[in-house]
Amino acid sequence: MKHLPEATSQTPKVITRVTLYLSTTLWRSFLTLIIGLGVSITGRTQTLILADRVFDGEEMHQNWAVLVTANKITAVGSIDHIKAPKDATIIRTKGTLLPGLIEGHSHLLLYPYNQTAWDDQVLKEADAYRTARATVHARNTLLAGFTTVRDLGTEGAGYSDVALKRAINEGLIPGPRMVVAGRAIVSTGSYGPKGFDSDSKIMLGAEPADGNELIRVVRDQIGQGADFIKIYADYRWGLSHEDQPSFTSDELKLINEVTRSSGRVMVCHAKSKEAMKRAILAGAVTIEHGDYLDDEIAALMKSHGVTYFPTLAAVESIQQYRGWQKGKNQEPGLVTQKKQGFKIAYQAGVTIGMGGDVGVYPHGENALEMELMEEYGMKSLDVLKAATSINARMLRMENQIGFIKPGWLADLVIVDGDPSQNISSVRKVLWVMKDGVIYRNDFKK
Predict the structure, then answer these.
(1) Residues 149 and 163 in one domain
(2) Which among 69, 137, 234, 244 is most buried, taking Cβ atoms within 10 Å?
(3) What three-state secondary structure class fits 384?
(4) What pLDDT is stored for residue 30 in this prediction?
């Protein structure tokens, strides 16, 4: 257990919350445990980071200093102009300081399908078991430098994401800040698991609803804790099992109207061109996947200010699970199509967020999507923006996270190397701070 939260001014708050759940005897045992693991609970309140490079969410700066007080960034600028306060902890690094990275498309309640098929995860694993696994996924994500995730549905595990988010917020387990969808919504008859005797009641991976019933379901999901509403605007239910729209334009507009009235937003899974068009015109703020994106859809996305999440890593991972050996076998058509759509969107100036559909591949390997974005033609600095400032704006949290600025939350990551020259440097995580608490510190080794 080499990566436990270090003491900061936030640690007492975490411990106070834990006391609400532990008796006096258990609390003493807990203190004995963390002391035995070498975790101090009387830490300093200020940290000064002196870095060769600082990426502030938009630009790379040389020889900058960043001062953290409690859980906020309080000063940023040239090393020559920021002095270390008395008793501040000083960290010097030749690496790069980044804002905490933001995963834009995650499923913490899923894990790779080459380990256990999606159907079996949904149908055969209890929600309690899946949630227990998700705590490990959350920890791995945080230690990989991703301090915030947008989680797009539990895929059959109810509102376990809402509970996971609460446990993280209360300091019970380490994990990223979560923004969650809950169950997500599908049209009747479209979603899986499928292929079972219709006499049996098969649990689906999302909640079905249609027509005016959508009003009740959207409101119920909001009441259950959904931070936004995710819709499957299409699915593989065409005559040849191709992706076809699953909601009418009017249904999508109704969903959006109800969602917006609560101050939330609608996001849409959409691969086919028609589903993307309907979703964009209905008011979706993001399009997930967008496999068949073309020039017309790119122009529509740009004109409506929609953020595109291409989920490149999920497509490549699934093809590899099916036998494709990258670099050895002929490239599958789905991968080629993905590359073409991504290139069209990038060249058209569409806002592209970073989100790989992680869960299809291992949590903690989130950087794979960033590497593929670079491989498919995006500049490294633009990839960094996608994983920080662009995702923060998409979440409407740009005044809290995604940037290194005075007043922003102290979500910070140090990596070895310069990811603006080679994006794979983001894999070399040395230090992670979330909300002023240090969760990883490899400098002590």
Answers:
(1) yes
(2) 234
(3) helix
(4) 42
Residue 2 lies in a domain: no
The pLDDT tens digits for 240-289 are 989 999 999 999 999 999 999 999 999 999 999 999 999 999 999 999 99
In a domain, 1, yes or no: no
Q: What is the pTM of this model?
A: 0.90
The CATH number of whichever domain residue 19 belongs to comes to 2.30.40.10
Q: Indicate if 273 and 125 belong to the same structural domain.
A: yes
Helix, strand and coil in the chain, % to nearest 5: 35, 20, 40
- How far apart (Å, rounded) are the C-alpha atoms in residues 386 and 44? 33
| Of 184, 194, 188, the residue nearest 156 (C-alpha) | 184
What pairs with residue 50 in β-bridges?
65, 92
- In terms of C-beta density within 10 A (0-12 exposed, 13-18 middle, 19 or more buried), how is residue 121 classed? buried
Q: What span, in angstroms and rounded, lies between the C-alpha atoms of 190 and 208?
A: 9
- DSSP string for 69-81: ETTEEEEEEEGGG
Same-domain check for residues 341 and 211: yes
Q: Write the CB contacts of 335 (distance below 8 Å, at least 6 apart in sequence).
A: 315, 316, 319, 324
Here the CATH number for the domain that contains residue 235 is 3.20.20.140
The verdict on 363 and 384 lying in the same domain is yes
Domain coverage including residue 370: 101-394
415 plus 386 within the same structural domain: no
Please name the residues in contact with 100: beta carbons below 8 A apart, sequence gap of 6 or more.
145, 146, 147, 148, 388, 401, 411, 412, 413, 432, 433, 434
Nearest to 175 by CA among 206, 131, 205, 113: 131
**Identity (one letter) of the amino acid at 21?**
Y
